[in-house]
UniProtKB/TrEMBL annotation:
Parts of the chain that traverse the membrane: none
Entry keyword annotation includes Thylakoid: no
InterPro entries (alphabetical): Acyl_CoA_acyltransferase, GNAT_dom, YpeA/RimI_acetyltransf
UniProt keyword terms in alphabetical order: Acyltransferase, Transferase
The name this protein goes by in its record: Ribosomal protein S18 acetylase RimI-like enzyme
SUPFAM superfamilies in the cross-refs: Acyl-CoA N-acyltransferases (Nat)
Organism of origin: Lederbergia wuyishanensis
Keyword Cell cycle: no
Top-rank lineage group of the source organism: Bacteria
Pfam families per record: Acetyltransf_1
Residue ranges of every copy of the N-acetyltransferase domain listed in the record: 2-161
């Protein structure tokens, strides 16, 4: 039985593990601490828990964490890769390698979309490597649409009005 719930403060390290997993680098991926502290990436995890931050955790019936989905607001002075505006949170998601292919990512995304609606946001954005075809397929299936490029990544948005 899968359970999706808000992440607890004591689980922030697992959230950072998932943030590391979410970065698509197929070869020679730097260690977690090094990668997450790079200037262009640490904005995603630094001071987690500020206004506009939300993270959900998926766990199995024994309480073992399987994955996480999260979002964070950025602004014009501190843009994320999937930045569209300062009112649209940018999301991230990752599922533990041993739990992939079981539909957990889609369930997490659907739950996060509902949470963002409940939190009063008008939509969500994300950034994805176009070579990560499986992820792009899932996002499109959930209703995300491509709206631009940022470096080598595609920016996609989900608009709640539709």
């Amino acid at each position: 039985m899968l359970k999706i719930r808000n992440i607890k403060e004591s689980e922030i390290e697992f959230l950072k593990d998932m943030m590391y997993e979410s970065i698509h680098i197929p070869e020679n991926k730097p260690p977690k601490e090094e990668l997450l502290n790079l200037p262009h990436l640490k904005k995603y995890n630094e001071n987690w828990g500020r206004a506009g931050d939300r993270a959900l955790l998926a766990e199995d019936s024994d309480g073992n964490p399987l994955g996480a989905a999260w979002y964070r607001l950025f602004n014009e002075q501190n843009k994320g890769y999937g930045y569209v505006d300062s009112f649209t949170p940018e999301l991230g998601i990752a599922v533990s390698p041993e739990a992939r292919g079981m539909g957990i990512g889609s369930l997490l995304m659907k739950a996060l979309i509902e949470r963002a609606k409940d939190d009063g946001f008008k939509g969500l954005s994300l950034s994805v490597d176009p070579h990560n075809e499986q992820a792009v397929h899932v996002y499109k299936k959930l209703g995300f649409e491509e709206c631009g490029l940022s470096g080598t990544s595609v920016t996609m948005v989900y608009d709640f009005a539709e």
